[in-house]
Amino acid sequence: MSYPVITLDGPGGAGKGTISRLVAEALGWHLLDSGAIYRLAALSCRRQGVALDNEGRVAELARALDIAFEPEEATTRVLLGGEDVSCAIRTEQAGGDASRVASLPSVRQALLDRQRHFAMSPGLVADGRDMGTVVFPTAALKIFLTASADERAQRRWRQLQEAGIHASLPDLLKEIQTRDARDMERSTSPLVPAEDAIVLDTTSSSIEDVVSHVMSLAQARQ
Ligand code: C5P
């Protein structure tokens, strides 16, 4: 049985997380935050003392991950082995670690079925880097969201400011550029738009505008 899927891929900070959540809410569909799964795999490695480049051990650990996502108002609680790690997986270090384990082909393979199981009735909005190219290649609607690296660094900086966390804008920009390069240059599931994806540049668009654009594309395909 296959269920309708909308994929939203793109680099970090392009607005995928917020837009995917709002579109899923508007449609009453499930949400897959695939980046969170890579972040959980990396966190689990750190906690168990597994080197992030030990492909065999990281893949084993990824396959055995005990994780849960509990939707709450305007957010999702993320659990690892029953512990709430929603904040722990959102640090800059966790993001960098996630991108390192995500470059390992057997880790990506180990997490494939787990991600596909999120496709349930009445439908799924899947947020990631390879949702439209690898995980859900037959999705009815594929969106690739982009924004300039400068804009993405500024968005991240503002988010951190609001959370009372001091960060350096040049450091954030460097981190974003390093992660983009790693995601785009890896051999397995590199970050590229699917051939049939619609590319939306969000550099100078509001969240509301992008959500309504995606919703109108979704409605046109139903
Ligand atoms: O989207 P988020 O920033 O949470 O993802 C963290 C990292 O996980 C990304 O930088 C990317 O390297 C990796 N990732 C991936 N494939 C996905 C989702 C995330 O490689 N589908």
Give an account of the 3D structure.
- The chain has one domain: 3-Layer(aba) Sandwich (Rossmann fold), CATH 3.40.50.
- The model has no long low-confidence stretch (mean pLDDT 94).
- The protein is globular, with a radius of gyration of 17 Å.
- It has helices spanning 16-27, 34-48, 55-63, 92-101, 105-110, 112-116, 131-135, 149-162, 169-185, 207-221, and strands spanning 5-9, 30-33, 67-72, 75-80, 83-84, 124-128, 141-146, 198-201.
- Strand 3 and strand 4 form a beta hairpin.
- It is of the alpha/beta class and 222 residues long.
- Helix 1 crosses helix 10 and helix 4 (92-101) packs parallel to helix 9.
- The protein has a five-stranded parallel sheet with strand order 2-6-1-7-8.
- The structure holds cytidine-5'-monophosphate.
- Cytidine-5'-monophosphate (C5P) binds next to helix 2, helix 4 and helix 9.
- Keywords: ATP-binding, Cytoplasm, Kinase, Nucleotide-binding, Transferase.
- This is Cytidylate kinase.
Short description:
This is Cytidylate kinase. By secondary structure, this protein is α/β, with parallel strands linked by helices.
CATH superfamily: P-loop containing nucleotide triphosphate hydrolases
- Structural class, from helix and strand content? alpha/beta
In CATH, the topology is named Rossmann fold
Largest sheet: 5 strands, parallel
Mean pLDDT score: 94
Shape: globular
Low-confidence stretches: none
CATH architecture: 3-Layer(aba) Sandwich
Cofactors, ions and other ligands in the entry: cytidine-5'-monophosphate
Gap from first CA to last CA: 18 Å
Question: What is the CATH level 1 assignment?
Answer: Alpha Beta
Strand content: 15-25%
Q: Residue share in helices?
A: 40-55%
Evaluate the radius of gyration: 17 Å
Number of domains: 1
Spatial strand arrangement across the major sheet = 2-6-1-7-8
What is the number of beta strands?
8
Subcellular location: Cytoplasm
Catalytic activity: dCMP + ATP = dCDP + ADP; CMP + ATP = CDP + ADP
Enzyme class: transferase
Family: Belongs to the cytidylate kinase family. Type 1 subfamily.
